[in-house]
Amino acid sequence: LPPALTWSLLAPRRVPTVPVKNLTGSSPVNPALAGITGILMSAAGLPVCLTRPPKLVLHPPPVSKSEIQTIPGISHTCRKTTKKQAKKGKTPEEVLKKYLQKVRHPLDEDCTICMERLSAPSGYKGPQPAVKPDLVGKLVKCGHVFHLHCLVAMYNNGNKDGSLQCPTCKTIYGVKTGTQPPGKMEYHIIPHALPGHSDCKTIRIIYNIPPGVQGPEHPNPGKSFTARGFPRHCYLPDSEKGRKVLKLLLVAWDRRLIFAIGTSSTTGESDTVIWNEIHHKTEFGSNLTGHGYPDINYLDNVLAELAAQGITEESLAQEKD
């Protein structure tokens, strides 16, 4: 052999150890690919370090009934879904009137609902509301302008609960409610700490919604719906901010905003109970799926999501009233 080639074969290899993980198949990395990589590296004379992947911890250690505590400042430990109806006797026009100012000379710009010019009649082609198609209104808080005809049609196509949400900036007028099906929400303290919150115990929330039949407010009235994965266990730190989040989640539950009936983004199943834009932590002792701890931004993020649904500290005072 040439001297240079002989030296390269005999010289010590200074290649760093490369770990090959996920051989158990518990992560998105294909375990077969990881195994093949290890074989090829070994055949090439490269050192292979086999390591175990982190373990998914969905639930806390067993908790006895005597260890479960009520949450100071929050009455009861269970709440069932309530269904708040819109005030009777008010037409959509009467409901929206308190949120609007009439615009006599609209600017030459588009109505973002029908995409026709505000200076022209509404282009909405569905069932015709009892209001002239050329009237224009401005929402009093955010200032966005629409055909009154379009706003009434949008209200009629929604939950008709006495509230309105601006389609441009999502500002909420009135009290927004959802279409969450009947169920039960339990909440209490367990004597274990979450990762990243070793200085306090844990608030455990248990949601339970059974399958049933869709009502008139749901996508397919009269058709049955499924409810997969219930009871669902969720976790918050038993800190001042964690208790604040729980209080606001109770308002969201009462307003039927935590769940909805729709199509699952994970399974593709239709007519099933799904989460409704308020994220929860369902992983107790790890964060492999992104739904666990530690997560230093979670409490602030969920407070922002609740606010987007119209649920803030002011809502707590409204509920007491």
What would you say this structure looks like, in words?
- It contains 7 helices and 15 strands.
- The chain has helices at 3-10, 31-43, 92-97, 148-156, 240-254, 298-308, 313-320, and strands at residues 18-20, 48-50, 78-80, 100-102, 136-139, 145-147, 164-165, 172-173, 184-190, 202-208, 212-213, 224-225, 232-237, 259-262, 272-275.
- The protein has a 4-stranded antiparallel beta sheet with strand order 3-9-10-13, with helices on one face. Strands 4-5-6 form a 3-stranded antiparallel beta sheet. Strands 1-2 form a two-stranded parallel sheet.
- The chain starts with a helix and ends with a helix.
- Mean pLDDT is 86; it is low at 3-12 and 15-29.
Overall pLDDT: 86
Structural class of the helix and strand makeup?
Answer: alpha+beta
CATH topology title of the largest domain: Enolase-like, domain 1
Radius of gyration: 28 Å
Order of helix and strand elements from N to C terminus? HEHEEHEEEHEEEEEEEHEEHH
Helix proportion: 10-25%
**Count of individual beta strands:** 15
For the largest beta-sheet, the strand count, sense and barrel status come to: 4 strands, antiparallel
| Euclidean distance between termini CA atoms | 92 Å
- Give the tally of structural domains: 2
Q: In what range is the share of β-strand residues? A: 15-25%
Spans with pLDDT under 50 lasting ≥5 residues? 3-12, 15-29
Shape, per Cα inertia axes:
globular
Annotated CATH architecture of the largest domain = 2-Layer Sandwich
> Which oligomeric state applies?
single chain
Query: How do the strands line up in the largest sheet?
Result: 3-9-10-13
* CATH top level assignment of the largest domain: Alpha Beta
Helix run count: 7
